[in-house]
Amino acid sequence: MRPQNFHDYRALARRKLPKGLFEYIDRGTENEIAIRALRESLDAIKITPCALTGHGARDFSTTLFGKRHALPLIIAPTALAGLVSHDGETKLARAAATAGIPFCVSTQSITAVEDIRAGAPGADIWFQLYMWRDRALTRSLLDRVWASGVTTLVVTADTPTGPNREYNARNGFGMPMKPSIRVGLDMALHPGWLFGVILAYMRTTGMPTYGHYPAEHRVAITGAPSGEAVQLEHRLNWDDLVALRREWRGEIVIKGLLSVADALKAANLGADSVVVSTHGGRNLDSAPTTARILPDIAEAVGEKVTVLADSGVQRGSDVLKYIGLGAKAVLAGRLPLWGLAAGGEAGADAILAMLKREMDLTMTMLGLERPSEVAPHIVR
């Protein structure tokens, strides 16, 4: 039977992916309070319908940075998406293009942005940046990104260090992936993934690597990127944003803000957009939820910058709730990955189409023609 919702796709992904990889995507951090709070915060929001206000069709389009998109949705950057399906990042980029939305590729993707561009020439590709300690290498990476036709840079601001994900240690899965008997058995119990992903890479490009790292620092996913130069910069600060603003010719999005003060500072220092985000509940277990903070940030900076939101999205109604709280568009990370795991590119297409159907149904029930009309109907 065709999967009907987020939970169906997640269950399919759980069966198809090794446990370590599935939990790496699915779970939170420490006691996983933050990831539970995300769901609870979205479920607590109600939307009041407006009766006898039917429309012939709904208009989901939105404009971000001068480009019109079919939906107020962006595929969020996710590390190692290319392990979910062979050439997974390119498949996601093509699915995004089919849906008429942007795709944001991660610094820690398997496939390099140049190859994603070649495989998905019609996609609106954004690039997520983890700053390396060697700024010259970071600038060289950004030159590659710009040359690939990317104009929107998403700077992750909420990961100064690796989070405490104890289940990764137990599973032997992380960055890097640690070879062990447990990991080998986990892979062997999922032969479809082993042959369809890992061995597919081995037959073509070799053991998967981090595609954006310089050749002299690039290693297989079973090893940590070598050298201090390409370690993630834990001292990232506002001066780095000023320098990026001076050097990057396109839009700069700061992802992972949860305070009005930080949003104001980002706007004042030249950011074009901020993403209110808890990193999907994966980083700081005591962080406030996106739904709690989003209205305050939207009120403070919504006239200056484009406010986006993410974390915890499972339904089209969740997208509308974040828009009703002040976001111009919403990023989704786990959802597209579950579609990709369940059915490759066709699965990613299907889960994005599902989100649109759910948005359409919710808006029809509410009597709304456009997502931007939902704000007065939000009950907090």
Automatic annotation (TrEMBL):
Q: Which UniProt keywords apply?
A: Flavoprotein, FMN, Oxidoreductase
Q: Which cofactor does it need?
A: FMN
Which residues hold glyoxylate? Answer: Y24, R165, H279, R282
Location of the active site: H279
Q: What is this protein called?
A: Alpha-hydroxy-acid oxidizing enzyme
Q: Which family would the database say this protein is a member of?
A: Belongs to the FMN-dependent alpha-hydroxy acid dehydrogenase family.
The FMN hydroxy acid dehydrogenase domain sits at 1-380
One GO process term, biological-process aspect? aerobic respiration
The answer to keyword Signal applying to this record is: no
Superkingdom of the source species? Bacteria
Residues involved in FMN binding? P77, T78, A79, S106, Q128, Y130, T156, K255, S277, G333, R334
GO terms for cellular component: plasma membrane
Pfam families linked to this entry? FMN_dh
SUPFAM superfamilies in the cross-refs? FMN-linked oxidoreductases
Q: Name one GO molecular function term.
A: FMN binding
